[in-house]
Amino acid sequence: MHAEYLVRMANQIGDFFVPDKGESEAPAAIANHMQRFWERSMRTQLVAHWNAGGAGLSPAAFKAAEIVAAHLAATTPKA
Hints:
It is a single chain. This protein is mainly alpha-helical and about 80 residues long. It has one domain (about 5-75). Helix content is about 80%, strand content about 0%. The protein is built from three helices and no strands. The chain is globular. It starts with a helix and ends with a helix.
């Protein structure tokens, strides 16, 4: 899946949660949505995009990607 598509989806999720949750709580809600409904490969690709600077991500989606990155790091088995 292309990063542009994932960015667009992440921003759309943010557009849904920011008005309801506010800027401070929306990133956690966005990350939770991604954990529940996105495949691990999609989350991994979004985190790679975030690690590369996160171009195009809204502020809330950028913070959500940071939360997802931390979760992936914590749940990825160490080689």
